[in-house]
From TrEMBL:
Signal peptide stretch: none
Organism: Oharaeibacter diazotrophicus
UniProt-listed PANTHER family: BNR/ASP-BOX REPEAT FAMILY PROTEIN, BNR_ASP-BOX REPEAT FAMILY PROTEIN
Pfam family for this entry, one: BNR_2
Domain Sialidase: from-to ranges: 55-380
InterPro entries noted in UniProt: Sialidase (IPR011040), Sialidase_sf (IPR036278)
Name by which UniProt lists this protein: Putative neuraminidase
């Protein structure tokens, strides 16, 4: 583990002046460089990294005043191969009536680049739909906004995976509303959207016994085997399930030994086969901090869809919100069930009882994304205080340099 002395707490007032997109050496951590991505928005959250075919690293996130508000839109910035500065952000969605969230970028086998994101009114995640824009010029420009999945309550966060048969697997989670109650995540479940025709149409396949398992992250292991890791709505443990048929069906999610605080995780299978996860490795026992729900600071929007509410199962327990979102750490695993925490990117109080970025009430480090570069560098992006997106790159050879040995 990197010693705490090398990870000073970030001064909230220093963030905005540093949002120039320039990668700089991180004092005390050899081979680490950091940048705050430029953005005109007060709130910036839910980053996702992806490489384009020409080697450009893209980062997409949502920005505006506060999650759930109508001015929340998707932004994209680029880091060209060999560059040290992220480009000025491009605003790629702009529906003033809807909060557009959780974007991701996917380069299809035929070279088309897909931008996907969710769209909802206020805090009504049980009414969300998934939209897309498609680029035919390698991600330089994107076509019109189109629906991808209009089943109410469908949410995405993690990358599309192409299986051995050429089918596209889009991990999803179903935000389920209950009669008479505003959505709070108590009975959300996992699913996979499957396309057998290169993204023209999609079929929803539910993951069995998956209440509370969201943000499914699919990792191919080869020979038709896959593993999936999940965020846990009940702030207990990262969950895991497996597929033996190229991701078409899945076992019920089970707990790993990695704590989770009901905040997003992201995983990648590195070139050497190791499974890497970036997350907040704490659970509900770490603090008594609680909040009512994710959207308790904004007014309710439209009522939950009748069909979704009518199909809602009874809630055996409530989702847990407000557990601190810190530290932000890297954990490694050989099997997807047992993890070793090897590095902290950030430490601090992690306070997440408010989403208010204008008044700087939030101290969370959250919603990580990670991507291994073709040169073996490890790229990570994440939310800092719901004010900015930070990009961290660990130069090739990072495991040896940081003294991280083999993971059994």
């Amino acid at each position: 583990m990197i010693p705490p002395a090398t990870l000073p707490e970030i001064d909230p007032a220093a963030i905005a002046p540093a949002m120039d997109g320039i990668l700089r050496d991180h004092a005390g951590v050899p081979g680490r460089r950091d940048a705050f991505l430029p953005s005109p928005a007060v709130q910036n959250h839910a980053a996702n990294l992806a490489f384009l075919a020409d080697g450009t690293l893209t980062c997409v996130w949502f920005g505006g005043t506060m999650e759930g508000m109508g001015d929340i839109s998707v932004h994209l910035s680029r880091l060209a191969p060999g560059a040290d500065r992220w480009s000025a952000p491009e605003k790629l969605s702009d529906d003033p009536a809807r909060s557009e969230q959780n974007p991701l970028v996917f380069t299809a086998p035929d070279g088309r680049v897909f931008l996907l994101f969710t769209s909802q009114v206020a805090g009504d995640q049980d009414g969300a739909v998934v939209k897309r824009r498609i680029s035919t010029d390698g991600g330089r420009s994107f076509g019109p906004v189109e629906p991808l999945c209009e089943v109410p309550g469908t949410f995405v966060r993690q990358p599309i995976v192409v299986n051995g048969a050429g089918n596209w697997l889009l991990p999803a989670f179903r935000c389920v509303g209950r009669p008479g109650l505003r959505w709070s995540g108590d009975v959300d479940t996992a699913a996979v959207l499957v396309s057998t025709d290169a993204g023209r149409s999609w079929t929803m396949r539910d993951v069995p016994d998956s209440i509370g398992a969201v943000h499914m992250n699919i990792l191919p292991l080869g020979h038709g085997r896959m593993v999936a890791l999940y965020r846990d709505r009940f702030a207990e443990r990262v969950r895991v399930s497996r597929s033996e048929d190229d991701g078409l069906t899945w076992s019920a999610p089970e707990p790993t030994d990695l704590p989770n605080n009901n905040s997003s995780i992201q995983a990648a299978r590195l070139a050497d086969g190791t499974i890497a996860v970036v997350c907040n490795p704490v659970d509900a026992t770490a603090s008594t901090d609680r909040r009512l729900s994710l959207y308790d600071e904004i007014d309710a929007g439209t009522a939950a869809p009748v069909a979704a509410a009518a199909a809602a199962p009874a809630a055996a327990r409530a989702a847990v919100w407000g557990v601190p979102r810190a530290p932000l750490s890297l954990a490694l695993s050989a099997d997807g069930r047992h993890f070793v925490r090897v590095l902290d990117f950030e430490r601090g109080p992690g306070t997440c009882l408010s989403n208010n970025s204008e008044e700087l009430r939030n101290r969370e480090f959250s919603y990580p994304s990670l991507a291994e570069g073709p040169d073996g560098a490890l790229h990570v992006a994440y939310t800092v205080y719901r004010r900015a997106i930070r990009h961290v790159v660990l130069a090739p050879g990072w495991r040896d340099r940081l003294g991280i040995g083999a993971i059994a």
